[in-house]
Specification:
CATH topology of the largest domain: Cytochrome Bc1 Complex, Chain D, domain 2
Structural class: mainly alpha
Shape: globular
Number of strands: 3
Distance between the termini: 54 Å
């Protein structure tokens, strides 16, 4: 009997050692992928600094919900600070103390926004660059012009620190579905569709406003399986709403039944959209195949 327990102890010790080795290997792999992003093909843009470009960029930053993560003054926010994930700030984008604005070149901005790689060469997490990759060169140039014009705010949030098992979650388990890994970097850039009440322009708006972040990549809704706010299925919306219902909801936050939408839906930002843009979104959603709820 003593021999049995002796061998049983050896087996448990061996298994524990194997599990530890595997965990360390996964941790190192994940940390390496996060700290050193894959090489990507950048597509720099020519950034102007005239008032018209800056104002257009301000509008784009609003509908793309930049301030939702980075703060009302782009001063940055602590996005994640909990064990066992670690510490992930949404950067201070201004030129103030602790901000990246004073160090980022136009090329750095493009790499971060459309490719998900920051100026330090790290893989960005949570940043929806897989959607922002669709930004046209002209619109991105205007967005960068606005970001560069933001008044400085002193707010040093420190460096991100993704710890075990967060580095395994972001760097291994979810890495192949994360922004930098899902973008066709060679196809990024170029002209966007013409601004018109068309499904093509509506699809463009869906991407640069990152609707998929809450409503799921196929827009069939997020019903609890994703770590993001609940967004209903949009593919069947035209079956139950009219174009007028949609416009009213998007521009006033009022649903057809008379209730107010949650503030998690950034309708206040979308209320700035023109009738042409709202119609383009409706045309795109109306063109989608109706899918069952995710």
């Amino acid at each position: 009997m003593k021999r049995f327990f002796k061998w049983l102890a050896i087996v448990f010790v061996g298994l524990a050692a194997l599990i530890t080795i595997a965990a360390v290997a996964l941790m190192l792999t994940g940390r390496g992928r996060l700290e050193t992003a894959p090489a990507v093909t950048a597509a720099p843009v020519a950034v102007a600094n005239d008032a018209e470009a800056i104002e257009r960029g301000r509008y784009l930053a609003t509908i793309s919900s930049c301030t939702e993560c980075h703060g009302a003054q782009l001063e940055g926010n602590v996005f994640v600070d909990e064990a066992p994930i670690g510490y992930i700030p949404a950067a201070n984008l201004t030129t103030g103390a602790g901000g990246v604005g004073g160090n980022y070149t136009d090329a750095d901005w493009e790499l971060a926004i459309r490719h998900g790689v920051n100026a330090a060469g790290q893989t960005m997490v949570i940043m929806p660059s897989n959607h922002f990759a669709r930004y046209s060169d002209d619109d991105l140039a205007d967005l960068i012009a606005f970001l560069k014009s933001a008044p400085p705010v002193d707010n040093d949030l420190g460096q991100r620190a993704i710890q075990f098992p967060g580095n395994i979650i972001f760097g291994v388990l979810a890495f192949d579905s994360w922004s930098v890994s899902t973008i066709d970097h060679a196809a990024v850039g170029g002209d966007g569709p013409a601004v018109a009440p068309t499904a093509e322009y509506g699809e463009y708006l869906v991407n640069i406003t990152s609707c998929n972040s809450c409503h799921a990549e196929n827009l069939a809704g997020n019903y609890g399986q994703l770590d993001s706010p609940l967004g209903p299925n949009l593919t069947g919306l035209p079956e139950t709403w009219s174009a007028e219902d949609f416009a009213t909801a998007l521009q006033t936050g009022m649903l057809p039944d008379g209730t107010q939408m949650s503030d998690e839906m950034p309708w206040a930002a979308y209320s700035l959209m023109s009738e042409e843009e709202v119609q383009a979104l409706w045309e795109y959603l109306s063109s989608l195949e109706q899918l069952p709820n995710n």
